[in-house]
Write a structure and sequence with these properties.
Helix content is 80%, strand content 0%. With 213 residues, the chain is an all-alpha fold.
């Protein structure tokens, strides 16, 4: 184990307290405003490394991380739906207006899929559910995408740390590759969506020409 991880190991509690701390980190990272200050993904990857060395049960860590992430998304969505305009102008968010605008554009361009992909895009992770709430996105589709993304996040990031084992550098490398994969999927989704719209538009135009003829 890396020396600095060993130092963390010696100061952290075991069992349920460790799991509750991981769940809290996952929750806070998905919380609008606070999530901008919380390096949650890094800490959860680190928790997976520590779980490899016996700090906590891996299945329990996945469960706590997933539930914490889901509750963070749901809370941000609720805050957006209930107090979005008020919070938009508060100091902690007013300083991040550029990120809020990016999250808003991302949501507008990608709709429900933005809830899934937004969880893996650090700077806007907690902002996309908030914008979804402000935009009055229907609760059921939001919940579906939030559950899927929280489960994948809760499995992947502790899992990447666990796979890294005794080497933090290896865990970071796995996490970087996973992030690149998610980004590739997002790009593929954008390209496929654009091609689909172009194809459907061409079909409609062809149909209108046939009718005119």
């Amino acid at each position: 184990m890396d020396p600095w991880l060993l130092d963390i190991w010696n100061h952290l509690p075991d069992g349920m307290t460790f799991l509750a701390a991981a769940g809290t980190v996952a929750f806070l990272e998905g919380l609008v405003g606070i999530g901008l200050l919380m390096p949650g993904s890094t800490l959860i990857v680190c928790s997976g490394v520590l779980a490899f060395h016996g700090k906590a049960d891996m299945i329990s860590l996945i469960a706590w991380s997933s539930v914490g992430a889901l509750l963070g998304d749901l809370t941000s969505y609720w805050l957006g739906a209930r107090s979005g305009e008020f919070l938009w102008n508060q100091r902690i968010l007013a300083r991040r207006k550029d990120l809020l605008r990016k999250a808003e554009v991302f949501f507008i361009e990608h709709g429900a899929k933005s809830i899934f992909f937004g969880r893996f895009l650090g700077p806007i992770r907690g902002l996309v559910p908030f914008v979804a709430g402000m935009s009055k996105m229907r609760p059921l589709p939001f919940l579906l995408y939030a559950i899927i993304s929280a489960l994948l996040w809760g499995v992947s990031y502790p899992g990447l740390g666990y796979l890294g084992g005794s080497s933090w550098q290896k865990a970071q490398s796995w996490a970087g590759r996973f992030g690149a994969l998610i980004l590739l999927l997002l790009v593929a989704s954008i390209v496929i969506g654009g091609l689909r719209k172009h194809f459907l538009g061409a079909v409609r135009k062809s149909g209108m020409k046939d009718k005119d003829a």
